[in-house]
Amino acid sequence: MKEDKDSKWFDVEFVPKDYIFPKEDQPRNIDSPVCDSIPVIDLSNSKADGHINPVESILTASQEIGFFQVINHGIPETIVNDAMNVLKEFFDMPSKKTHTTGWIYTSSTDYAKDGVHLWRENLKHPCHPIEDCIHLWPENPTRYQEVISAYLVEIQKLSSRILEMISEGLGLQSGYFKGMSEVQLLSSNLYPPCPDPSLTLGILPHQDPSLITLLYQSDSTGLQVMKDGQWVNVGAIPNAFVVNIGNQLEIISNGKLKSIKHRVVNNTHETRISIATFVNPSPDCIIEPAKVLVNELEPSQYTAKQYKEFVQCNKAFGDYTVALQNALKN
Ligand code: OGA
Ligand code: NI
Q1: What pTM, to 2 d.p., does this model score?
Q2: Which domain of life is it from (predicted)?
Q3: Which atom, in ligand 1's list, is nearest to the CA of 263?
Q4: Disulfide-capable partner of 257 in 59, 62, 136, 202 (CB 3.0 to 4.6 Å)?
């Protein structure tokens, strides 16, 4: 498909052929009601005595569903809204490719599977450390670098807090993830309205290769999680962050915490913008089940691997499932 200044690739009456997935990949039950089975966890009480401790809720959700949402997380609304607005502006620009040396995939260059395009536009760039990679980020909108830096500083703080709670819940020593976890990658998606969402996909089913992923989706739906063999919708809660367990944390927890498959389906009328931030181990870090979680009754289920080795195993974005299976001992 050609992208020119005046028309957008998604301003169409019918889904073009090269966006139609083979029958077996086409989403079904996309009209199922929004499911509220993804736990919503209030972080505001985490330090106060006598209140419900979110550590337990986080651990249960991570064990059972691998997904939860956090509210009262302490990230100022203005920082999040600024980030969303600057990304909206970015995706609105007519000629994005000329504006960045970072990694930008537009719909027409983003082949997902067998030459079929995803119904999305995507911007990806590295984030760690910010000062070393900021020059790779978009220069337009001119506020982009400043606004996104501020956002990432907050994401780093929140993710450290969540990882510390997970480490407490698992019974690991305090500070276990400190110094080994980095907000390495930002991946932002624009999912435009689609004439027939039953034929297309925004993102193919995949697991994240991260420790944890923090996702901001504002008040839009479209994210679906595999639960008990079915796709369930993740509800839209404005100002909440969706948190999910990635492959690396599944390994470190010796399989206690679940890295669950998810995907994004499209919408007929609404535009969805998401900001995914991947909190990953440092590249040289050796990933293996934590020593205190391995014993005679619960032997190690995974082979030790450097994080960079794991990622090299499967470079194709979106499908790290194979790499996780390779890490599993037989
Ligand atoms: C991802 C992801 C969901 C979304 O980038 O890994 O699952 O809503 N994104 O964009
Ligand atoms: Ni994902």
Answers
A1: 0.91
A2: Eukaryota
A3: 7
A4: 62
